[in-house]
Specification:
heterodimer; A: 262 residues; four-stranded mixed sheet; 7 helices; B: mainly alpha; Formate dehydrogenase/DMSO reductase fold
């Protein structure tokens, strides 16, 4: 039993959405409907209650090495997004029922038989991953295929990925693999390849790392996500101050008011 | 929004395709089928992802899934918690018995309405008790539920025992129940009146967490103003203690309003611009400057005038407190839709995309 992670390498992703399909099939996730977004071939938009893996279709002006120098109006890159399974997970800390737990594999898992749909985890996620299914009432997100991992299988998305863009394995090995891969991309002239793994933020790193080219913000990856527990201290100090003022003020008001005595 | 890209730079074939696309979009818009409208396209016939636009301007954060029950819960909890504190202190300092018992009834009403609202908003209301299987100090929601439990039990016991005592005369068990209930409603009422500020302050929503240190104080003052207002409407328009507390709350709320208006962080925009901004301002005026002015005016003039001025101040503070809670929740929704803040993109004047959140989920 080891601590595991995803490494999603967008330089290998071909946008086939096999991961989305495999995830839905294995986990029995609801359909997303048939809306056209107008944003490339991405009609889902973001991860959510019914989308636990989500392939982003990033259209950009063509750059050398980005799909050749053909006279196409845009170049495409793809990246399969997923719950980040933060080291310091906002949803896990916020959950008032203890439904959200850390598994033995290091993933963050919502126990569906405990969740009562309070929705607080939704506001606590700095990556906008968790969502309440308004029909079902409970909150849902990627389970890191906890059931599969328990019996020694890899998650469905990683298994289905035809290009090994989604790698799954022991987290320390994957961190090394990510560095090797980025070094290789750099040596091939793709100097803008970077690893996204916010270890130096309050989130403390993730169990879902990404290799992307260019600015990670183009992939809706926030530069410095914060776990909301960082706001607890000043908030409770303010709460204590408010309670003290309310108590002192009320006491003063009634002590000073001689008329009201019985 | 439709033709901002440089049509002049296209060749004839592309141009005709582009016009056809626009026609299709216009038709879809007229039929109301167009669900998602992107940000202004950057230089190409397609909206492009870029560091300036994020991922097509699709919001990173999810909006809070709560409906009207939660802001109403914030209002009821704030007023009930402050009423419990007023009732207990009034009793300890020997104020008149009717004021004490009225304050207890407000707290007791809150002790029934608050959990009902909280449970009604759950996605699975029948599983409310799952919240009572753990206590997590790091989760304001968990701390809040236990505070609510302690408050509700205490406030209900104090009001009920007080009622029985007034009706059937004092007895030892009633006295014990009344005093214990009152002590509990005071101890839990203090945090209960403001913890909802911590609840939304410690989240990923920018407009909320930017104000994490302000919200509990702000909500406490708002709740106090409402509790004083309700007591005054129940007939306690001569109490100088209530007048002082109402004035204090109104002055604090005026200061809070100035503090919001005076700072210029992009995170605070939903409190100042658009519908959420106007609701915030309406709530602020009704809870701060207006009741403060009415209360000061009531110092002067005849007894009759003074009473009606205080009645107006009471209504204003109650309405202001209610509107303020809805305003903050609404601002949270607007803030979550702003894709620029979590991606740390400088605001360059681009309007936020009209994303009617392809909401089939």
């Amino acid at each position: 039993m080891s601590v595991t992670a995803f490494l999603t390498d967008s330089t290998l992703c071909i946008g086939c959405k096999a991961c989305e399909v495999a995830c839905k099939e294995w986990n029995g996730v609801d359909q997303d409907g048939f809306d056209w977004s107008g944003f490339s071939y991405d009609n889902t938009g973001a991860v959510g209650a019914s989308t636990w893996r989500h392939v982003k279709f990033v259209e950009q002006p063509p750059l050398p090495g980005f799909g050749g120098n053909a006279a196409e109006p845009t170049s495409w890159t793809f990246s399969s997004d997923v719950c980040k399974h933060c080291e310091e997970a906002g949803c896990l800390e916020a959950c008032p029922t203890g439904s959200i737990v850390r598994t033995e594999f290091g993933g963050v898992f919502i126990q569906p038989d405990v969740c009562n749909g309070c929705g607080y985890c939704v506001t606590a996620c700095p990556f906008g991953v968790v969502e309440r299914n308004q029909k079902d009432g409970r909150a849902f997100k990627c389970t890191f295929c906890y059931d599969r991992q328990k019996v020694g299988l890899q998650p469905a998305c990683a298994k289905a990925c035809p290009t090994e863009s989604i790698k799954f394995g022991e987290i320390e090995h994957l961190r090394e693999d990510a560095q090797k891969r980025v070094n290789e991309l750099h040596s091939r002239g793709m100097q803008d390849a970077v690893i996204y793994d916010p270890t130096d933020t309050s989130v403390g790193g993730t169990h879902a790392m990404f290799i992307v080219r260019g600015d990670p913000r183009t992939y809706n990856l926030p530069p410095s996500p914060d776990v909301p527990t960082v706001y607890l201290k000043k908030s409770w100090v303010s709460s204590a101050l408010a309670a003290g003022l309310l108590l002192g003020g009320t006491l003063l008001a009634f002590l000073a008011d001689g008329d009201g005595r019985r | 929004m439709m033709s901002e890209y440089p049509l002049s730079e296209m060749d004839e074939q592309d141009l005709s395709r582009e016009r056809r696309l626009e026609e299709i979009r216009r038709q879809a818009e007229q039929r109301g089928q167009l669900q998602v409208v992107g940000p202004p396209p950057a230089g190409a016939p397609f909206p492009q992802a870029s560091p300036q636009h994020g991922y097509y301007g699709i919001p990173l954060l999810k909006e809070p899934p709560w409906t009207w029950e939660i802001p109403l819960y914030f209002f009821v909890g704030g007023a009930a918690g402050a009423a419990a504190v007023i009732g207990a202190i009034a009793d300890y300092t020997g104020a008149d018995r009717e004021l004490v018992q009225h304050a207890r009834w407000i707290a007791a009403a809150g002790s029934v309405i608050s959990p009902a609202l909280l449970i009604a908003d759950l996605g699975r209301p029948e599983r409310f008790l799952a919240m009572l299987r753990v206590f997590k100090p790091q989760s304001p929601m968990s701390v809040g539920v236990w505070t609510l439990l302690g408050f509700s039990s205490g406030a209900a016991a104090a009001a009920f025992a007080g009622f029985l005592r007034d009706r059937y005369g004092p007895s030892l068990p009633l006295k014990v129940l009344e005093n214990a209930g009152q002590a509990a409603s005071l101890a839990f009422g203090l945090p209960f009146s403001n913890y909802t500020g911590v609840l939304i302050g410690a989240t990923a929503i920018p407009v909320w967490n930017r104000n994490a240190a302000d919200l509990p104080l702000h909500f406490a003052a708002s709740g106090l103003g409402a509790a004083v207002g309700i007591l005054e409407l129940m007939g306690h328009r001569k109490s100088r203690a209530l007048q002082a507390l109402g004035l204090g709350a109104a002055i604090f709320e005026s200061w809070e309003g100035l503090r919001i208006e005076g700072r210029s962080h992009p995170e605070l925009d939903p409190l100042k611009h658009g519908p959420s901004g106007w609701i915030t301002r309406a709530g602020g005026l009704l809870s701060g400057p207006l009741p403060a002015a009415l209360r000061i005016a009531s110092f002067f003039g005849s007894k009759k005038n003074s009473a009606s001025l205080r009645r107006a101040a009471a209504w204003s503070a109650i309405a202001g407190s209610l509107i303020t809670r809805f305003a903050w929740v609404r601002a949270g929704h607007v803030s979550a839709r702003n894709w620029k803040l979590p991606l740390q993109i400088e605001d360059d004047g681009h309007p936020p995309p009209k994303l009617s959140s392809a909401s089939h989920r």
